């Protein structure tokens, strides 16, 4: 009899999504009858780039996968929630954490929202929480 020994391998994803954010994403996707979020960076904002998190339907996702150019699409999944990282933005988003905070008037949080925190090794952000500057 052969004894098999398995070792655990840590998989490093380009971004991190907290449990609170996964839960809210799952809720939104169910409400909107969608399957995916796409996470990207766009030029603009007070710090150079803005974080974008948008709903993506199945048709657009299939179109992205079948494009003639061979591009790698980072796909994170938990339960029914899927997050796709825009391939053109991935290098700007490395190390970013997506979280979701709920309003808490006693602690000065007056709205529920997704927040984006860059890895300080790769980018810096301003106080608005949706704008960042990649480091050289």
What does this structure look like?
The chain is α+β, with helices and mostly antiparallel strands and 136 residues long. It has helices at residues 19-32, 58-65, 90-93, and strands at 16-17, 36-43, 49-56, 74-78, 81-85, 97-101, 113-117, 123-125, 131-134. The chain has one domain (16-134): Hypothetical Protein Aq_1857, Chain: A (Sandwich), CATH 2.60.300.12. It is built from three helices and nine strands; from the N terminus they run βαββαββαββββ. It has a six-stranded mixed β-sheet. The protein is globular. The protein starts with 15 loop residues before the first strand and ends with a strand.
Could you write a compact summary of the structure shown?
The protein is α+β, with helices and mostly antiparallel strands. The chain has helices at residues 19-32, 58-65, 90-93; strands spanning 16-17, 36-43, 49-56, 74-78, 81-85, 97-101, 113-117, 123-125, 131-134. It has a single domain, classed as Hypothetical Protein Aq_1857, Chain: A (Sandwich).
């Amino acid at each position: 009899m052969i004894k098999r020994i398995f070792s655990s391998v840590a998989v490093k994803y380009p971004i991190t999504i907290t449990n609170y954010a996964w839960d809210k994403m799952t809720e939104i996707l169910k409400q909107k009858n969608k399957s995916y979020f796409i996470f990207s960076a766009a030029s603009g904002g007070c710090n150079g780039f803005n974080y974008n998190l948008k709903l993506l339907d199945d048709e657009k996702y299939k179109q992205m996968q079948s494009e003639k150019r061979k591009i790698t699409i980072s796909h994170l999944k938990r339960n029914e929630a899927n997050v796709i990282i825009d391939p053109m933005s991935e290098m700007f988003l490395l190390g970013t954490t997506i979280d979701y905070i709920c309003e808490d008037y006693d602690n000065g949080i007056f709205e529920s929202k997704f927040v984006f925190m860059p890895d300080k090794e790769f980018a810096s952000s301003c106080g608005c929480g949706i704008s960042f500057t990649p480091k050289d």
